[in-house]
Structure formats: C-alpha cells, structure tokens
Design brief:
heterodimer; A: alpha+beta; Heat Shock Protein 90; 2 domains; five-stranded mixed β-sheet; 7 strands; about 65% helix; B: OB fold (Dihydrolipoamide Acetyltransferase, E2P); five-stranded antiparallel β-sheet
C-alpha cells in the first residue's frame, strides 16, 4: 500500500502541497507560454489535479528499486525513464485540455500556445515526478524505521519476560531444600563434603543471580553453571546420576542468553533420570559448524512414568527465548527414541561480545 | 507416655542415599527407635513393609516408579493402625493430601532432631490410642479430584503391577476390594469402587451398575435383556449387568 494512502493524515498534506505547485505551474504558463491568467487557471487546475495522483505511482518505483538493494545506476536509470514517461503523459493530457478548451468560444486561439506550453509542462512534470519519488523514498524509510523500532521493542519485551520467567523457575525451592537436607546429612558423616556442598551451592546461587542481568554470556560460562548444578545433584542422587560432557572449545566461546540450558538440564534430571530406578546419564555436547552452534542434550526416561505437570514448561520457555533472540534462525527439536529423550538446539554462532 | 519403653520399629523410604542416612542417624539418636529397613524406591518399600511389618514408615513422596501415595495405597490395612506413616519431603503442597490419607505427620526437609522427635512422639501416641487403620481407599481418595490418575498400581503378593488406565477394561466391587480387569487378567486391590471411580478419568469410565465401572472404549453394544434390565456387551464378548441409572448414564455418554 502506498505510504501516503496507507497512513491516515498523509493524503491531505500531500494534496495541500500541490496548491503552491499548481500556482507555480500556472505562473510558469503565463510567463513562458504567454497564456492569459484565466487561460492559465483553466488549463492548470485539471492538469495538476491529475498529476497529483499520477505521481503517487512513483511508489511502485520505490518498491522496484529500493535504496540500498538496487545499484545507483539502475536506480537513476529507472527513475529518469519513469519521470520522462510520466511527464510525456502529462504533456499529452495538457494538450488534450487545451484542445477541449479550444472548442469553447473565446479559447479557439489557445492551441497556438501549445509549442511554447508543451516543453514547460514536460520539464516541470519531469522535476515534479522526481520530487514525488523522493518524498516516497523518505516516507518508506520513515515507515520502515518505525516498524523496526516496534519490532525491537517487542523483541526486548519478550526477552525480558523470558529472562524473568527463567529466573523464577531457577530459584526452584525444592532443589534448595533437598540440597540443604543433603548438607544436613553430611555434617555428621562427612563434614568435609558438607563444606564442599555448601561452596557448590553458594557458587551456583551466586552465578545464577549474577547472570540473570546479562543479555549474553559465553556458552562456556553457561556450561560451568550447568556443571555446578549437576555436581550438586550428584551429591544428592549418588551413583544414579552420571554426567557426560563433550563440548568443543570454539563452541564454548559462542554467546547464548544466560540460563538457557540450565532449565533443560534440570528437566533432564528431574523428569528423566530421577524417576528411573537405575538412574542414568545426562549427556551434553556442543560443536560449531557452518556458522551455527549445535547443542545436544540426551537423557534416558521411563516410558511408564506419569508425565509430570509442568514438564513441558521449560521447553516452551526456551523456545520463546530463542525466538525472541534469533527469530527463525534458531531451532529447537526434541526426539524420543529407544528410551532416550534428545533435545537439539541450533543457534547462530555469534561471538559472546 | 504410659508405655514409653516400647521399641518402635521403623522403615525409611527415600530415593536419595543422604536423605536415608540423615533419617537413620537422627532416628538412631532417639531412644527406643530402631530402623529395620531402608528402601530406595516404592517397590522396595512395599516389599519391606510387608515383610517387616514396622510400627512406622518414613516415606518420601517423589520417588521412581511408585510415589509415596501409591506406596501407601498398597499397604496392608491392619486393625491396630500399623504402620503409622510419616511423610518426609521437600514439597509442602502434598501436606493436605497426606493428612487426608491419615498420615501421622508431615516432615519438611530439611528438619532437625527436635522436629523428628516430635513426629516420633506423635506416632507413639497414635499407636497407643490404637486408632484403626484408615478405611481402604482413603489413601488414594485423598489424591483428590483435581487430576485424574493415569495409572493404577496393584499388588499381588510380592508383585506390583502398574496398570495404565487405558488398559483397564472394567472394575467390579467385591466387598472391601475391587477387581480390576486389565489386559486379560484380573487384579485385586483394597479399595472401594466409589473411591476408584473418583480417581479415574470421567470421560473414559462410566458407573454402569452399583458394582461395575466400565471403560467406554470396551463397549460394543447395549442389549435389552429379557427381564427388562439391559446388558453391556464388550469387545471380547463379556456381558456386564447394567442398572437403570447406569443405562441412563451410558446413553448420555454415548449420545444414544
């Protein structure tokens, strides 16, 4: 849709701008083509009224040869050709008006001024058309900037919301209470390990709280958070929880939103390993290829277990955060095969800044 | 306590080794309490409780395979109220359910020796009062109508079977028990038909008779019997009696 017609309140100023242009056109016709003021008014009014709308067509040019996408030569060529065509049409319309007026008594001599009138109309039409194109380019740029701004605001709102939700889920009180219970058990049997567990828990909480304010952290930093989480859970679950990690160094340098993986790993433990009698291994791997980072999280699950309410919330959160950050350039896929639950995250390999 | 010297036997059930260790240690410091078994999951718990017949069970809620409430629903019901059940969990949202299931106490992790001692005292006085065991089914009834169960656990001697609700064909009331027909086999469970009906998904199961609950998926047709009472014919040819009210409920559900 033409930006002048699409946005209410633009058509009136556009038409008003044609009032002085009409006056200039009329004056030029009086001065250059020797028309009487009355003849000038009668010719100019229908002439510019039509051209005002013809010039709206320059919008199609702006779409066909947008700034930046088309080469300068192509842009100039297209614009000049269109302006030439438009002004020729305009001149033809001017001639038509003159011939129609000539049929009225008192104006029969008007066609005599055509040789002087036509070049004035052609040159003026050419310039006016270029002016209209320029106005359209400016308006389109303004509209695009506004849309970008709105999109940016929406994205940052989504990202903030996701962050908040992640933080809320992060401070999972049951994880804390169970860990404190483990510490309580260790204080008599193994004070040294109790102290270690306190340090682990403190470190985990500190980095969780510290990270939540940042927009991006290196994947390696997220993984060290995940590692301390898993170490704490290993104290609780003992041999039932095993951890395997295969992360390539260049993947670890890529940037991710903080607390992106931690909720997924927590799910893997809570809904995957914990409900199994024999426990299992949580496998985490990350590698970089073709400008993308592929992160894979695999855990076994008990097919008989009741799906706990809220198990899918973590996944939905991560999906939202990926979309807020990268749109459709990031992907999250899940697979259930042979008793294994597999999450595959593919995100652009942006540097962690 | 009048008979404070009586020895209290306890079974500890928790899937976390450290949580069991803590309970064992703190219980060991209380007078006249002895831990006779430790279990890491619901299966072990049901077996150990049947074998050891303890006075008290300290029971975690979230465990692999069987959760604490499912374990409770499988315990033998004894006249003397044994075993008394104390839930031990980090989650506070099951407390109401636990007390409705006649639990003696509800310990929130982490807890200290004084709180555990208070729980043991409550167990002693409950057992001294000789309070009768909760009526069958109350334990599972207490899971509440909020969310229908997706499975039912039954016990046959030492075997525990998990029946997904989709596999349950029909259920028949038999005194204090229900007989569940599932996967071509019969299973008995100490529960009332009414309490089971309350837990099963309403869109799948219909009470067709005072004594029968039917999985709608199994129904082939409703036959008008010679005596005026209709009969439900199932996929495998089984015929179940249908009461007048049951027939009305069935017709409402199948839109006939």
């Amino acid at each position: 849709m033409n930006p002048i017609l699409a946005t209410s309140g633009r058509l009136r100023p556009y038409l008003l701008a044609w009032v002085p242009l009409t006056a200039i056109t009329g004056t030029l016709l009086v001065l250059a083509a020797r028309l009487t003021p009355l003849e000038a008014v009668l010719v100019t009014l229908p002439l510019t009224a039509v051209y005002a709308f013809l010039c709206l067509s320059s919008w199609y040019l702006c779409k066909a040869v947008p700034v930046g996408a088309a080469t300068l030569a192509r842009m100039t060529g297209t614009l000049l050709a269109a302006a030439a065509l438009a002004s020729t049409l305009w001149a033809a319309w001017g001639a038509t008006i003159v011939w129609i007026l000539a049929t009225f008594p008192g104006f029969s001599a008007l066609p005599d001024s055509l040789p002087a009138l036509t070049p004035v109309v052609v040159i003026l039409g050419f310039l006016l058309y270029l002016l209209a194109a320029a106005v359209h380019y400016v308006l389109l740029a303004v509209d695009r900037a506004r849309a970008e701004e709105a999109r940016g605001a929406e994205l940052s709102r989504l990202a903030r919301e996701a962050e908040l939700r992640a933080l809320k889920e992060q401070l999972n009180p049951h994880f804390l209470f169970n860990s404190l219970n483990s510490i309580s058990a260790l204080t008599t049997s193994s004070p040294e390990r109790a102290r270690e567990m306190c340090v682990l828990l403190a470190g985990f909480l500190r980095s969780t709280l510290g990270l939540s304010g940042k927009a991006t952290i290196p994947l390696g930093e997220e993984l060290s958070l995940v590692r301390s989480y898993l170490e704490i859970e290993r104290v609780r679950f003992g041999d039932r929880l095993r951890v395997e990690e295969r992360v390539e160094a260049d993947a670890a340098r890529c940037g991710v939103p903080p607390l992106l993986l931690q909720p997924l790993v927590e799910n893997a433990v809570k809904h995957g390993v914990a409900p199994r009698l024999e426990g299992g291994a949580v496998t985490l791997s990350a590698r970089q290829a073709d400008g993308m980072v592929r992160i894979e999280l695999v855990n076994p699950y008990d097919p008989d277990a009741e799906a706990a309410p809220g198990a899918g919330v973590g996944l939905a959160n991560v999906r939202r955060r990926l979309a807020a950050r990268w749109g459709d350039r990031a992907a999250l896929e899940t697979m259930r095969t042979d008793g294994l639950f597999r999450i595959e995250l593919t995100i652009p390999a942006d540097a962690a800044a | 306590m009048a008979s404070g010297a009586s020895l209290l036997s306890a079974v500890v059930v928790d899937d976390e080794p450290l949580a069991r260790e803590l309970l064992r240690e703190l219980l060991g410091r209380l007078p006249d309490v002895t831990v006779v078994a430790e279990c890491a999951n619901g299966f072990e718990a049901v077996k150990a409780i049947a074998e050891r017949a303890p006075d008290v069970v300290f029971l975690d809620v979230q465990m692999p395979k069987l959760d604490g409430f499912e374990v409770l629903s499988l315990l033998p019901k004894r006249e003397d109220g044994r075993p008394a059940v104390v839930f031990v969990t980090a989650y506070d949202q099951y407390a109401v359910k636990a007390f409705e299931a006649n639990a003696v106490d509800y310990l929130l992790k982490p807890f200290d020796k004084a709180r555990l001692a208070a729980a043991v005292e409550r167990v002693r006085s409950r057992l001294a009062a000789g309070q009768a065991a909760p009526p069958p089914g109350l334990a599972t009834e207490a899971r509440g109508p909020a969310r229908p169960v997706s499975r039912v656990v039954v016990r046959d001697g030492a075997d525990i079977t998990v029946l997904p609700v989709a596999t349950i064909e029909w259920v028949k009331a038999e005194d204090d028990y229900v007989l569940l027909r599932a996967g071509g086999r019969d299973h008995l469970k100490a529960e009332t038909l009414g309490s089971l009906e309350a837990q099963l998904p309403k869109d799948r199961f219909v009470r067709i008779h005072r004594s029968y609950l039917l999985n709608l998926d199994r129904l082939v047709r409703l036959e008008a019997g010679a005596t005026g009472t209709p009969t439900a014919v199932l996929r495998d040819g089984t015929e179940l009696p249908v009461s007048r009210a049951g027939a009305r409920r069935l017709r409402e559900r199948i839109g006939a």
